[in-house]
Amino acid sequence: MSLPRFVAWIFLLAVWLGVATAAAGSREPQVKLDGDTVVITGEQIRRLSVHALDELLSLIPGVKAAGNHVSIRGSYKVKVLLDGMSLRDPASGGLRLNLVPFQQLRKVVVKKGGGSVAYGDDSSGGVILLYTRRMEKTRYYLEASGGKFNYQNYKANLSYARDAWGLALSGEYYYSDRFRRNYDKERIRGGLKLSYRPPGWQGTPPTLSLDLGRENRGNPGYLKYPTPHSRSRDDSLGVSLAWSEKELASSTSVTRFYSQSLNPDAGFESTLESWNLRQDLRTTLEAPWLGKLNCGVLLNLSQGRGSDFDSRQEQSYGLFAHKTVEFQVLPVSLQLGIRANFYSEYQTVLNPEMRLGWKLGRLNLKASAVKSNNVPSFRQRYFRTRTLIPNPDLGPEEGVSYTLGVSARLLKGLSGDLTLFHREIKDRISYVRGDGGVGQYRNAGRTRTQGMELALAYKPMKWLELRPSYTYLQALNLDTGLWMVGKPRHKVKVDLVLRPWPRFMLGFLYTYSSEIYTRWDNQERADAYQRLDLRSEYRFDAWRIFASVRNLLDEEYFYGDGYPASPLSWIMGVSREF
Asked: Are 168 and 151 within 8 A, CB to CB?
Protein backbone atom coordinates (compact mmCIF):
# COMPACT_ATOMS: atom_id res chain seq x y z
CA MET A 1 0.00 0.00 0.00
CA SER A 2 1.38 3.43 -0.94
CA LEU A 3 2.01 6.01 1.78
CA PRO A 4 -0.71 8.53 0.67
CA ARG A 5 -3.29 5.71 0.52
CA PHE A 6 -2.21 4.53 3.99
CA VAL A 7 -2.75 8.03 5.42
CA ALA A 8 -6.11 8.32 3.65
CA TRP A 9 -7.32 5.03 5.19
CA ILE A 10 -6.23 6.17 8.65
CA PHE A 11 -8.17 9.41 8.23
CA LEU A 12 -11.33 7.69 6.91
CA LEU A 13 -11.23 5.20 9.76
CA ALA A 14 -10.93 8.05 12.27
CA VAL A 15 -13.89 9.90 10.76
CA TRP A 16 -16.03 6.74 10.76
CA LEU A 17 -15.23 6.10 14.40
CA GLY A 18 -15.98 9.72 15.21
CA VAL A 19 -19.39 9.61 13.56
CA ALA A 20 -20.19 6.38 15.37
CA THR A 21 -19.01 7.49 18.82
CA ALA A 22 -19.00 11.30 18.78
CA ALA A 23 -18.24 12.66 22.23
CA ALA A 24 -19.24 15.94 23.79
CA GLY A 25 -16.73 18.56 24.77
CA SER A 26 -14.59 21.30 23.32
CA ARG A 27 -14.17 21.20 19.58
CA GLU A 28 -11.73 24.07 19.32
CA PRO A 29 -8.47 23.13 17.52
CA GLN A 30 -5.47 22.85 19.82
CA VAL A 31 -3.31 24.98 17.52
CA LYS A 32 -5.24 28.00 16.24
CA LEU A 33 -4.34 29.66 12.96
CA ASP A 34 -4.01 33.43 12.73
CA GLY A 35 -2.28 34.44 9.52
CA ASP A 36 1.42 35.02 10.03
CA THR A 37 1.32 34.36 13.79
CA VAL A 38 0.99 31.01 15.55
CA VAL A 39 0.73 30.86 19.36
CA ILE A 40 1.11 27.55 21.23
CA THR A 41 0.67 27.42 25.00
CA GLY A 42 2.43 25.08 27.39
CA GLU A 43 -0.73 23.00 27.88
CA GLN A 44 -1.11 22.62 24.10
CA ILE A 45 2.53 21.50 23.86
CA ARG A 46 1.88 18.76 26.39
CA ARG A 47 -1.31 17.65 24.62
CA LEU A 48 0.56 17.41 21.31
CA SER A 49 2.92 14.89 22.94
CA VAL A 50 6.18 16.25 21.54
CA HIS A 51 9.40 16.17 23.54
CA ALA A 52 11.78 18.48 21.67
CA LEU A 53 11.57 21.95 20.18
CA ASP A 54 12.27 20.84 16.62
CA GLU A 55 9.44 18.29 16.85
CA LEU A 56 7.03 21.03 17.93
CA LEU A 57 8.11 23.51 15.25
CA SER A 58 7.87 20.85 12.54
CA LEU A 59 4.10 20.64 13.17
CA ILE A 60 3.62 24.29 12.16
CA PRO A 61 2.76 24.99 8.49
CA GLY A 62 5.64 26.55 6.57
CA VAL A 63 8.22 25.74 9.27
CA LYS A 64 11.03 23.21 8.90
CA ALA A 65 13.12 22.27 11.93
CA ALA A 66 15.82 19.70 12.66
CA GLY A 67 18.32 19.99 15.47
CA ASN A 68 19.67 23.54 15.51
CA HIS A 69 18.35 24.38 12.03
CA VAL A 70 15.04 26.22 11.52
CA SER A 71 13.58 27.72 8.36
CA ILE A 72 10.30 29.55 7.71
CA ARG A 73 8.90 29.55 4.19
CA GLY A 74 12.29 28.66 2.76
CA SER A 75 14.35 31.19 4.77
CA TYR A 76 16.91 30.23 7.42
CA LYS A 77 17.18 33.85 8.59
CA VAL A 78 15.05 33.21 11.65
CA LYS A 79 15.65 34.93 14.99
CA VAL A 80 14.98 32.86 18.13
CA LEU A 81 14.69 34.56 21.52
CA LEU A 82 14.52 32.68 24.83
CA ASP A 83 12.95 35.03 27.39
CA GLY A 84 14.52 37.89 25.41
CA MET A 85 17.98 36.29 24.99
CA SER A 86 19.08 35.69 21.40
CA LEU A 87 20.05 32.09 20.62
CA ARG A 88 21.91 33.01 17.43
CA ASP A 89 25.68 32.70 17.57
CA PRO A 90 27.14 35.93 16.11
CA ALA A 91 30.32 34.11 15.14
CA SER A 92 28.87 31.13 13.27
CA GLY A 93 25.47 32.60 12.45
CA GLY A 94 23.84 29.36 13.62
CA LEU A 95 21.22 28.77 16.28
CA ARG A 96 21.94 27.10 19.61
CA LEU A 97 18.55 25.59 20.39
CA ASN A 98 20.14 23.06 22.74
CA LEU A 99 20.08 25.81 25.39
CA VAL A 100 16.27 25.66 25.50
CA PRO A 101 14.74 23.94 28.57
CA PHE A 102 11.89 22.47 26.53
CA GLN A 103 9.91 21.06 29.46
CA GLN A 104 9.79 24.53 31.06
CA LEU A 105 8.22 26.31 28.09
CA ARG A 106 4.91 28.02 28.84
CA LYS A 107 4.39 29.64 25.42
CA VAL A 108 5.85 29.57 21.91
CA VAL A 109 5.07 32.36 19.42
CA VAL A 110 6.05 31.97 15.75
CA LYS A 111 5.91 35.16 13.65
CA LYS A 112 6.31 34.41 9.96
CA GLY A 113 7.28 36.85 7.23
CA GLY A 114 9.80 39.02 9.05
CA GLY A 115 10.02 41.08 12.24
CA SER A 116 12.96 43.42 11.69
CA VAL A 117 11.39 46.55 13.23
CA ALA A 118 10.61 44.99 16.59
CA TYR A 119 13.45 42.42 16.72
CA GLY A 120 16.31 43.66 14.54
CA ASP A 121 18.65 41.97 12.08
CA ASP A 122 18.57 38.35 10.89
CA SER A 123 14.78 38.07 11.12
CA SER A 124 13.76 38.38 7.47
CA GLY A 125 12.33 34.85 7.54
CA GLY A 126 10.57 35.27 10.87
CA VAL A 127 10.89 35.35 14.64
CA ILE A 128 10.34 32.62 17.23
CA LEU A 129 9.71 33.78 20.80
CA LEU A 130 10.15 31.23 23.60
CA TYR A 131 8.82 31.94 27.09
CA THR A 132 9.58 29.74 30.09
CA ARG A 133 7.33 29.10 33.05
CA ARG A 134 6.96 31.58 35.86
CA MET A 135 8.14 30.18 39.18
CA GLU A 136 4.86 30.48 41.05
CA LYS A 137 4.70 27.04 42.67
CA THR A 138 6.94 24.10 43.53
CA ARG A 139 7.06 21.28 40.96
CA TYR A 140 9.37 18.47 39.86
CA TYR A 141 9.72 16.78 36.47
CA LEU A 142 11.69 13.65 35.53
CA GLU A 143 11.92 11.99 32.11
CA ALA A 144 13.90 9.07 30.69
CA SER A 145 13.77 7.58 27.20
CA GLY A 146 15.73 5.21 24.98
CA GLY A 147 15.54 3.72 21.51
CA LYS A 148 17.19 2.65 18.28
CA PHE A 149 20.78 3.66 17.45
CA ASN A 150 21.63 3.57 21.17
CA TYR A 151 19.36 6.58 21.77
CA GLN A 152 19.40 7.84 25.36
CA ASN A 153 17.77 10.98 26.76
CA TYR A 154 17.34 12.00 30.40
CA LYS A 155 15.73 15.22 31.66
CA ALA A 156 15.12 16.67 35.11
CA ASN A 157 13.50 19.95 36.16
CA LEU A 158 12.89 21.48 39.57
CA SER A 159 10.91 24.64 40.26
CA TYR A 160 10.68 26.02 43.80
CA ALA A 161 8.69 29.04 44.98
CA ARG A 162 8.51 30.60 48.42
CA ASP A 163 7.18 34.03 49.29
CA ALA A 164 8.73 36.52 46.82
CA TRP A 165 11.48 34.15 45.66
CA GLY A 166 11.52 31.63 42.84
CA LEU A 167 14.18 29.10 41.84
CA ALA A 168 14.30 26.69 38.90
CA LEU A 169 16.93 24.09 37.98
CA SER A 170 16.99 21.98 34.81
CA GLY A 171 19.29 19.44 33.22
CA GLU A 172 19.42 17.13 30.21
CA TYR A 173 21.70 14.42 28.81
CA TYR A 174 21.37 13.09 25.24
CA TYR A 175 23.36 10.51 23.28
CA SER A 176 22.82 8.57 20.05
CA ASP A 177 25.05 6.70 17.59
CA ARG A 178 22.59 7.65 14.84
CA PHE A 179 22.65 5.89 11.49
CA ARG A 180 26.00 6.62 9.80
CA ARG A 181 29.60 5.95 10.67
CA ASN A 182 31.06 8.83 12.69
CA TYR A 183 27.60 10.40 13.10
CA ASP A 184 27.23 10.04 16.88
CA LYS A 185 26.12 12.98 18.99
CA GLU A 186 26.36 13.67 22.73
CA ARG A 187 24.70 16.70 24.32
CA ILE A 188 24.66 18.00 27.90
CA ARG A 189 22.54 20.97 29.00
CA GLY A 190 21.93 22.69 32.32
CA GLY A 191 20.06 25.76 33.47
CA LEU A 192 19.26 27.90 36.51
CA LYS A 193 16.67 30.63 37.04
CA LEU A 194 16.33 32.89 40.05
CA SER A 195 13.60 35.51 40.48
CA TYR A 196 12.56 37.96 43.17
CA ARG A 197 9.34 39.99 43.22
CA PRO A 198 9.69 43.12 45.39
CA PRO A 199 6.57 44.14 47.35
CA GLY A 200 4.16 46.05 45.13
CA TRP A 201 5.98 45.10 41.92
CA GLN A 202 3.75 45.27 38.85
CA GLY A 203 4.88 43.25 35.88
CA THR A 204 7.42 40.46 35.41
CA PRO A 205 9.76 40.24 38.42
CA PRO A 206 13.52 40.53 37.85
CA THR A 207 14.69 37.08 36.73
CA LEU A 208 18.30 35.99 36.40
CA SER A 209 18.90 33.01 34.11
CA LEU A 210 21.98 30.90 33.45
CA ASP A 211 21.98 28.35 30.62
CA LEU A 212 24.91 26.25 29.44
CA GLY A 213 25.41 23.36 27.07
CA ARG A 214 28.03 21.21 25.37
CA GLU A 215 27.69 19.11 22.23
CA ASN A 216 30.19 16.63 20.82
CA ARG A 217 29.46 15.03 17.46
CA GLY A 218 30.98 13.30 14.48
CA ASN A 219 30.87 14.77 10.98
CA PRO A 220 30.48 11.99 8.39
CA GLY A 221 30.57 14.36 5.41
CA TYR A 222 28.87 13.93 2.05
CA LEU A 223 28.45 10.42 0.70
CA LYS A 224 30.83 11.25 -2.16
CA TYR A 225 33.35 12.89 0.18
CA PRO A 226 33.21 10.99 3.51
CA THR A 227 35.10 12.24 6.56
CA PRO A 228 35.09 9.20 8.90
CA HIS A 229 37.26 10.81 11.60
CA SER A 230 36.11 14.44 11.53
CA ARG A 231 34.79 15.70 14.90
CA SER A 232 33.19 18.87 16.24
CA ARG A 233 32.58 20.33 19.67
CA ASP A 234 30.28 23.24 20.57
CA ASP A 235 30.14 24.95 23.97
CA SER A 236 27.37 27.44 24.80
CA LEU A 237 26.83 29.78 27.74
CA GLY A 238 24.08 32.34 28.22
CA VAL A 239 23.39 34.67 31.16
CA SER A 240 20.38 36.98 31.09
CA LEU A 241 18.46 39.37 33.32
CA ALA A 242 14.91 40.24 32.31
CA TRP A 243 12.17 42.30 33.98
CA SER A 244 9.18 44.50 33.22
CA GLU A 245 7.51 47.18 35.32
CA LYS A 246 4.41 49.00 34.11
CA GLU A 247 5.32 50.41 30.65
CA LEU A 248 9.02 49.49 30.75
CA ALA A 249 10.60 46.14 29.81
CA SER A 250 14.29 45.24 29.80
CA SER A 251 16.31 42.23 28.68
CA THR A 252 20.08 42.09 29.19
CA SER A 253 22.09 39.07 28.09
CA VAL A 254 25.66 37.88 27.65
CA THR A 255 26.35 34.82 25.52
CA ARG A 256 29.57 32.96 24.85
CA PHE A 257 29.94 30.32 22.12
CA TYR A 258 32.95 28.14 21.30
CA SER A 259 33.34 25.73 18.36
CA GLN A 260 36.14 23.33 17.50
CA SER A 261 36.50 21.28 14.29
CA LEU A 262 39.07 18.51 13.85
CA ASN A 263 39.84 16.27 10.87
CA PRO A 264 43.06 14.28 11.46
CA ASP A 265 42.89 12.66 8.00
CA ALA A 266 43.32 16.08 6.37
CA GLY A 267 45.64 17.45 9.10
CA PHE A 268 43.02 20.10 9.84
CA GLU A 269 42.03 21.74 13.14
CA SER A 270 40.23 25.03 13.71
CA THR A 271 38.48 26.90 16.50
CA LEU A 272 35.96 29.73 16.64
CA GLU A 273 34.95 31.69 19.72
CA SER A 274 32.55 34.58 20.25
CA TRP A 275 31.12 36.81 22.96
CA ASN A 276 27.97 38.86 22.61
CA LEU A 277 26.47 41.53 24.86
CA ARG A 278 22.86 42.46 24.10
CA GLN A 279 20.64 45.08 25.75
CA ASP A 280 16.99 45.37 24.68
CA LEU A 281 14.94 48.14 26.32
CA ARG A 282 11.29 48.78 25.39
CA THR A 283 8.65 51.21 26.60
CA THR A 284 5.43 53.00 25.68
CA LEU A 285 5.49 56.78 25.33
CA GLU A 286 2.95 59.53 24.74
CA ALA A 287 4.17 61.69 21.85
CA PRO A 288 2.69 65.05 20.76
CA TRP A 289 0.20 64.65 17.85
CA LEU A 290 1.11 60.96 17.54
CA GLY A 291 -0.35 59.67 20.78
CA LYS A 292 0.87 56.37 22.25
CA LEU A 293 4.03 54.91 20.66
CA ASN A 294 5.74 51.59 21.31
CA CYS A 295 9.46 52.20 21.01
CA GLY A 296 12.78 50.80 22.11
CA VAL A 297 16.52 50.61 21.75
CA LEU A 298 18.73 47.59 21.03
CA LEU A 299 22.47 47.66 21.76
CA ASN A 300 24.64 44.83 20.49
CA LEU A 301 28.37 44.24 21.02
CA SER A 302 29.96 41.17 19.38
CA GLN A 303 33.52 39.89 19.54
CA GLY A 304 34.90 36.90 17.69
CA ARG A 305 38.20 35.18 17.09
CA GLY A 306 39.36 31.98 15.51
CA SER A 307 42.37 29.86 14.70
CA ASP A 308 42.55 31.56 11.28
CA PHE A 309 41.87 35.18 12.28
CA ASP A 310 42.66 37.57 15.12
CA SER A 311 40.12 38.94 17.55
CA ARG A 312 37.58 41.27 15.94
CA GLN A 313 34.93 43.41 17.60
CA GLU A 314 31.79 44.90 16.06
CA GLN A 315 28.93 47.02 17.39
CA SER A 316 25.41 47.74 16.25
CA TYR A 317 22.68 49.97 17.63
CA GLY A 318 19.02 50.02 16.76
CA LEU A 319 16.20 52.47 17.52
CA PHE A 320 12.63 51.58 16.67
CA ALA A 321 9.10 52.91 17.07
CA HIS A 322 5.76 51.65 15.90
CA LYS A 323 2.19 52.75 16.36
CA THR A 324 -1.12 50.96 15.95
CA VAL A 325 -4.14 52.92 14.75
CA GLU A 326 -7.66 51.57 15.27
CA PHE A 327 -10.30 53.10 13.00
CA GLN A 328 -13.74 53.69 14.53
CA VAL A 329 -15.70 53.74 11.28
CA LEU A 330 -14.29 50.46 9.96
CA PRO A 331 -13.00 47.36 11.82
CA VAL A 332 -9.54 48.11 10.47
CA SER A 333 -6.21 48.35 12.30
CA LEU A 334 -3.03 49.83 10.83
CA GLN A 335 0.43 49.38 12.32
CA LEU A 336 3.31 51.53 11.10
CA GLY A 337 6.87 51.10 12.30
CA ILE A 338 10.44 52.05 11.52
CA ARG A 339 13.86 51.01 12.79
CA ALA A 340 17.21 52.74 12.33
CA ASN A 341 20.20 50.39 12.46
CA PHE A 342 23.71 51.74 13.01
CA TYR A 343 26.76 49.50 12.43
CA SER A 344 30.48 49.81 13.05
CA GLU A 345 31.24 47.82 9.86
CA TYR A 346 28.41 48.79 7.48
CA GLN A 347 26.34 51.77 6.45
CA THR A 348 23.32 52.94 8.47
CA VAL A 349 20.00 51.60 7.21
CA LEU A 350 16.33 52.39 7.80
CA ASN A 351 13.85 49.53 7.87
CA PRO A 352 10.15 50.50 7.62
CA GLU A 353 7.22 48.20 8.26
CA MET A 354 3.48 48.36 7.59
CA ARG A 355 0.82 45.90 8.72
CA LEU A 356 -2.90 46.16 7.95
CA GLY A 357 -5.71 44.13 9.52
CA TRP A 358 -9.39 44.08 8.62
CA LYS A 359 -12.00 41.99 10.45
CA LEU A 360 -15.12 41.06 8.48
CA GLY A 361 -17.31 38.78 10.55
CA ARG A 362 -15.56 35.43 10.69
CA LEU A 363 -12.84 36.61 8.31
CA ASN A 364 -9.58 38.32 9.27
CA LEU A 365 -7.75 39.95 6.37
CA LYS A 366 -4.09 40.83 6.83
CA ALA A 367 -1.41 42.44 4.71
CA SER A 368 2.17 43.44 5.49
CA ALA A 369 5.27 44.96 3.94
CA VAL A 370 8.60 44.68 5.81
CA LYS A 371 12.16 45.70 4.97
CA SER A 372 14.98 43.83 6.72
CA ASN A 373 18.74 43.25 6.90
CA ASN A 374 20.76 40.09 7.48
CA VAL A 375 24.36 40.57 8.61
CA PRO A 376 27.11 38.02 7.74
CA SER A 377 28.73 36.16 10.62
CA PHE A 378 32.42 36.03 11.55
CA ARG A 379 32.49 32.44 10.32
CA GLN A 380 31.13 33.31 6.89
CA ARG A 381 33.79 36.01 6.45
CA TYR A 382 36.93 34.73 8.18
CA PHE A 383 36.68 31.04 9.12
CA ARG A 384 38.42 28.23 7.25
CA THR A 385 37.59 24.52 7.32
CA ARG A 386 38.09 21.57 5.00
CA THR A 387 34.94 22.58 3.12
CA LEU A 388 34.98 26.38 3.60
CA ILE A 389 37.13 29.19 2.16
CA PRO A 390 37.00 32.62 3.91
CA ASN A 391 35.47 35.67 2.20
CA PRO A 392 36.32 38.85 4.20
CA ASP A 393 34.56 41.06 1.61
CA LEU A 394 31.16 39.48 2.29
CA GLY A 395 28.48 42.12 2.84
CA PRO A 396 24.98 42.20 4.42
CA GLU A 397 21.76 41.21 2.73
CA GLU A 398 18.85 43.57 2.11
CA GLY A 399 15.38 42.10 1.93
CA VAL A 400 11.80 43.17 1.37
CA SER A 401 8.88 40.88 2.27
CA TYR A 402 5.21 41.17 1.38
CA THR A 403 2.34 39.02 2.63
CA LEU A 404 -1.40 39.00 1.94
CA GLY A 405 -3.58 36.59 3.84
CA VAL A 406 -7.00 35.67 5.14
CA SER A 407 -7.82 33.54 8.16
CA ALA A 408 -11.31 32.42 9.10
CA ARG A 409 -13.35 30.32 11.45
CA LEU A 410 -15.33 28.50 8.79
CA LEU A 411 -17.48 26.17 10.91
CA LYS A 412 -17.60 24.99 14.48
CA GLY A 413 -14.29 23.24 15.05
CA LEU A 414 -12.91 24.29 11.64
CA SER A 415 -10.54 27.19 10.96
CA GLY A 416 -8.38 27.96 7.96
CA ASP A 417 -5.66 30.26 6.76
CA LEU A 418 -4.44 31.23 3.29
CA THR A 419 -1.32 33.39 2.86
CA LEU A 420 0.43 34.65 -0.25
CA PHE A 421 4.05 35.68 0.37
CA HIS A 422 6.75 37.34 -1.70
CA ARG A 423 10.33 38.03 -0.55
CA GLU A 424 13.21 39.52 -2.51
CA ILE A 425 16.78 39.54 -1.22
CA LYS A 426 19.52 41.75 -2.60
CA ASP A 427 23.13 40.52 -2.17
CA ARG A 428 21.90 37.24 -0.72
CA ILE A 429 24.49 35.31 1.30
CA SER A 430 24.80 31.81 -0.15
CA TYR A 431 27.17 28.91 0.35
CA VAL A 432 28.49 28.03 -3.12
CA ARG A 433 29.94 24.50 -3.19
CA GLY A 434 32.24 23.50 -6.01
CA ASP A 435 34.03 20.32 -7.02
CA GLY A 436 35.68 18.39 -4.20
CA GLY A 437 33.04 19.54 -1.69
CA VAL A 438 34.85 22.86 -1.00
CA GLY A 439 32.87 26.10 -1.12
CA GLN A 440 32.62 29.72 -0.02
CA TYR A 441 29.95 32.13 1.22
CA ARG A 442 29.20 34.77 -1.39
CA ASN A 443 26.77 37.61 -2.04
CA ALA A 444 24.98 35.68 -4.77
CA GLY A 445 23.08 38.60 -6.30
CA ARG A 446 19.30 38.92 -6.20
CA THR A 447 16.95 36.15 -5.19
CA ARG A 448 13.18 35.87 -5.04
CA THR A 449 11.13 33.54 -2.86
CA GLN A 450 7.40 33.59 -3.31
CA GLY A 451 4.50 31.25 -2.96
CA MET A 452 1.37 30.27 -1.11
CA GLU A 453 0.64 28.66 2.23
CA LEU A 454 -2.70 26.99 2.94
CA ALA A 455 -3.50 25.48 6.33
CA LEU A 456 -6.57 24.05 8.06
CA ALA A 457 -7.28 23.04 11.63
CA TYR A 458 -10.28 20.76 11.97
CA LYS A 459 -11.64 19.27 15.18
CA PRO A 460 -15.03 17.69 14.39
CA MET A 461 -15.20 15.99 17.78
CA LYS A 462 -13.45 16.02 21.11
CA TRP A 463 -11.06 13.19 20.35
CA LEU A 464 -10.16 13.85 16.70
CA GLU A 465 -8.09 16.68 15.24
CA LEU A 466 -6.72 17.11 11.73
CA ARG A 467 -4.23 19.78 10.61
CA PRO A 468 -3.36 19.59 6.91
CA SER A 469 -1.20 22.23 5.22
CA TYR A 470 0.27 22.86 1.79
CA THR A 471 3.12 25.21 0.87
CA TYR A 472 3.97 26.16 -2.68
CA LEU A 473 7.39 27.76 -3.03
CA GLN A 474 9.24 29.31 -5.94
CA ALA A 475 12.86 30.11 -5.05
CA LEU A 476 15.02 31.60 -7.82
CA ASN A 477 18.34 33.34 -8.19
CA LEU A 478 17.19 36.26 -10.36
CA ASP A 479 20.68 36.85 -11.81
CA THR A 480 21.20 33.29 -13.06
CA GLY A 481 17.64 32.02 -13.35
CA LEU A 482 18.69 28.92 -11.35
CA TRP A 483 16.69 27.33 -8.56
CA MET A 484 18.00 27.83 -5.02
CA VAL A 485 19.52 24.89 -3.13
CA GLY A 486 17.35 22.85 -0.79
CA LYS A 487 14.03 24.58 -1.64
CA PRO A 488 11.20 22.18 -2.58
CA ARG A 489 8.47 23.54 -4.83
CA HIS A 490 5.74 21.59 -3.01
CA LYS A 491 5.50 20.69 0.68
CA VAL A 492 2.54 18.90 2.28
CA LYS A 493 2.00 18.18 5.97
CA VAL A 494 -0.90 16.30 7.53
CA ASP A 495 -0.98 15.99 11.31
CA LEU A 496 -3.72 13.63 12.52
CA VAL A 497 -4.31 13.32 16.27
CA LEU A 498 -6.61 10.67 17.79
CA ARG A 499 -7.72 10.50 21.43
CA PRO A 500 -10.06 7.47 21.56
CA TRP A 501 -9.73 7.40 25.36
CA PRO A 502 -9.20 10.36 27.68
CA ARG A 503 -5.71 9.24 28.71
CA PHE A 504 -4.46 7.94 25.36
CA MET A 505 -3.19 9.90 22.36
CA LEU A 506 -2.04 8.68 18.95
CA GLY A 507 -0.63 11.03 16.32
CA PHE A 508 0.41 10.60 12.68
CA LEU A 509 2.47 13.22 10.84
CA TYR A 510 2.65 12.75 7.09
CA THR A 511 5.13 14.84 5.09
CA TYR A 512 5.59 15.09 1.34
CA SER A 513 8.40 17.14 -0.19
CA SER A 514 9.02 17.53 -3.91
CA GLU A 515 12.51 17.24 -5.41
CA ILE A 516 15.25 19.73 -4.54
CA TYR A 517 18.51 20.85 -6.09
CA THR A 518 21.57 20.05 -3.99
CA ARG A 519 24.11 22.21 -5.91
CA TRP A 520 24.03 25.91 -6.64
CA ASP A 521 24.49 25.24 -10.39
CA ASN A 522 21.47 22.85 -10.43
CA GLN A 523 23.66 19.97 -11.66
CA GLU A 524 22.64 17.66 -8.81
CA ARG A 525 19.28 17.00 -7.26
CA ALA A 526 17.53 14.86 -4.65
CA ASP A 527 14.28 13.10 -5.49
CA ALA A 528 10.92 13.81 -3.91
CA TYR A 529 10.11 11.88 -0.76
CA GLN A 530 7.24 10.94 1.53
CA ARG A 531 7.55 10.29 5.22
CA LEU A 532 5.26 9.15 8.01
CA ASP A 533 6.00 9.70 11.70
CA LEU A 534 4.04 8.33 14.63
CA ARG A 535 3.83 9.47 18.23
CA SER A 536 1.72 8.15 21.11
CA GLU A 537 1.22 8.75 24.80
CA TYR A 538 -0.65 7.25 27.72
CA ARG A 539 -1.25 9.17 30.95
CA PHE A 540 -2.22 7.98 34.39
CA ASP A 541 -2.07 10.24 37.42
CA ALA A 542 1.19 12.22 37.08
CA TRP A 543 2.86 9.59 34.89
CA ARG A 544 3.22 9.64 31.11
CA ILE A 545 4.40 6.75 28.95
CA PHE A 546 5.28 7.84 25.43
CA ALA A 547 6.70 6.40 22.23
CA SER A 548 7.45 7.66 18.74
CA VAL A 549 8.54 6.20 15.43
CA ARG A 550 10.20 8.37 12.81
CA ASN A 551 10.14 7.44 9.15
CA LEU A 552 7.70 4.63 9.92
CA LEU A 553 7.83 3.12 6.40
CA ASP A 554 11.64 3.35 6.23
CA GLU A 555 11.79 5.60 3.16
CA GLU A 556 15.24 6.46 1.73
CA TYR A 557 15.68 10.10 0.77
CA PHE A 558 18.04 13.09 0.89
CA TYR A 559 17.55 16.57 2.30
CA GLY A 560 19.35 19.94 2.38
CA ASP A 561 22.25 19.94 -0.05
CA GLY A 562 22.58 16.17 -0.31
CA TYR A 563 22.71 14.55 3.14
CA PRO A 564 20.91 11.21 3.61
CA ALA A 565 17.97 11.22 6.00
CA SER A 566 17.54 8.83 8.88
CA PRO A 567 15.96 5.41 8.27
CA LEU A 568 13.26 4.08 10.56
CA SER A 569 14.00 4.83 14.20
CA TRP A 570 12.01 4.66 17.42
CA ILE A 571 12.12 5.78 21.04
CA MET A 572 10.17 4.88 24.19
CA GLY A 573 10.12 6.74 27.45
CA VAL A 574 8.41 7.63 30.70
CA SER A 575 8.02 10.90 32.60
CA ARG A 576 6.50 12.03 35.88
CA GLU A 577 5.57 15.45 37.20
CA PHE A 578 5.17 16.03 40.93
From this structure: no
